[in-house]
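can u do me a favor
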């Protein structure tokens, strides 16, 4: 998964509540509770976090779980960098909502993403597949680690 020939010298932290965690060959993974998000960089947990959502999970948290998700976004907003990575394209989210979704329209979904991005300063990334989302999470964490440490452990 990583692009470089030698693995970066950082560890990725995966929240213990993450039910279907990503893994990256050659990258050290630590599992412990995070105060916000599902993924972070070891030693930088108070500075960066990334929340992962499948499309069905996103619709659920944007709808019925809205109040809880807004509390999560408020915790993410306190960090230097925070993102929500959704395992679906924006087109799929807007035009092909999961069949189990009721009483929540694509228009509401899109407006929620816009409002939360502006209100909380949290970045929303739409990735066409779980594999692309996994890659994006790694690249976001790696870039932050490089900037935060000048590439040194």
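np, heres the sequence
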């Amino acid at each position: 998964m990583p692009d470089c020939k030698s693995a970066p010298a950082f560890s990725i932290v995966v929240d213990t509540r993450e039910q279907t965690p990503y893994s990256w060959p050659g990258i050290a993974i630590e599992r412990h509770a995070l105060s916000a998000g599902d993924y972070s960089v070891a030693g930088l947990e108070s500075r960066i976090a990334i929340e992962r959502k499948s499309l069905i999970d996103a619709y659920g948290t944007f709808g019925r779980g809205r109040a809880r998700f807004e509390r999560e976004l408020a915790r993410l907003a306190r960090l230097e960098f925070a993102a929500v990575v959704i395992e679906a394209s924006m087109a799929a989210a807007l035009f092909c909502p999961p069949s189990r979704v009721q009483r929540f329209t694509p228009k509401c979904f899109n407006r929620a993403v816009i409002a939360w991005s502006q209100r909380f300063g949290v970045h929303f990334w739409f990735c066409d597949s779980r594999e692309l989302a996994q890659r994006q999470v790694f690249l976001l964490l790696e870039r932050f680690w490089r900037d935060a440490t000048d590439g040194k452990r």
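The two ends are 20 Å apart (CA to CA). hope that helps!!
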